[in-house]
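Problem 3 from the worked examples.
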Amino acid sequence: MQTIEIKSLEDLEKAAKSFLSVVHGSKTFAFYGPMGSGKTTLIKAICKELGATDMVTSPTFALVNEYRTNNGDTIYHLDLYRINSIGELYDIGYEEYFYGDHIVFIEWPEMAEALLPESFIHVTLEDTGMNNRLVHIAI
């Protein structure tokens, strides 16, 4: 288990760089944490470090956002908060996202755990107060 501390929004760039150095080469990431813990904010910073050229936003209503990087790679960002059954994951074609050759960030992955690849990285955000966050990465 690796832990990264974020003390303020100014720490996000450094935290994103640290995150990428810890997970080097991994493709599928499941982000856990309560509402408002900073999942989307951290994913935005990580996407920026990966060279995303598109605006990174929460896919809460779209379920899936697709971003391109400056070297032509694709990043998928899923928000499964509104998913009510595993059948809905089949409907959106989860296999393309979970088992493709691209980076995937999944917020609210609880419903999808049975379908995630074995190699997924478990990321938990913990709000420790006063805009501080701990990012726990289980590799």
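Problem 4, a separate protein:
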Amino acid sequence: MNSNQRIALTRDCDSIEIPSGARKTLPCSTSVRIMQSRGGSYSVTTDLGGMYRIDASDADALGLLPASNADARPFGPLTEQLVNDQLRTVFDPEIPVNIVDLGLVYSSLITALEQGGNRLDIRMTMTAPGCGMGNVLKADVERKLSRLPDVREVRVEVVFDPPWHAGLMSEAARLQLGLDFADDGMSPTFPIIQGKS
């Protein structure tokens, strides 16, 4: 969901400032615009230029109903595909692309535990080492993966080696963002927008 319509918050609302990751309460009547709604949260901007993430549990403050399937638990046997599908429900709050297609997930490993159930080990990165949203995305991954069947433990490690680069994005992500890549697949060429310098 993207909207250029202004919405006045109907109550004080908890949020996370983007990109700092700082928690902030937006006061009732603050005017916001929804930039994206993906992965169980809303990215909004204020008239003062700030960008914030609001969780789906606070959709009522935006005058919206929470998604009916927001708390649906995935089911079926635990497989790499199920893990990847769940990781694809985690989105960067500034970019309308999931973390898998952005190339932020370096590895995922399913390990059977002696006492029963499984442990998931995830190695992931951020688009920039100083990203304040790192802990927020890490918590999103932990929360969503812990809901998978037979998962008893989730370990998420945020690493910066190797450093992320745009060449790690999937072709679908590049197309969605309108990026064109040079022959090496690592140097983005941004589309030329007529009338802008």
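Solution to problem 4. DSSP finds three helices and eleven strands in the chain. The chain has two domains: 6-62, 80-181.
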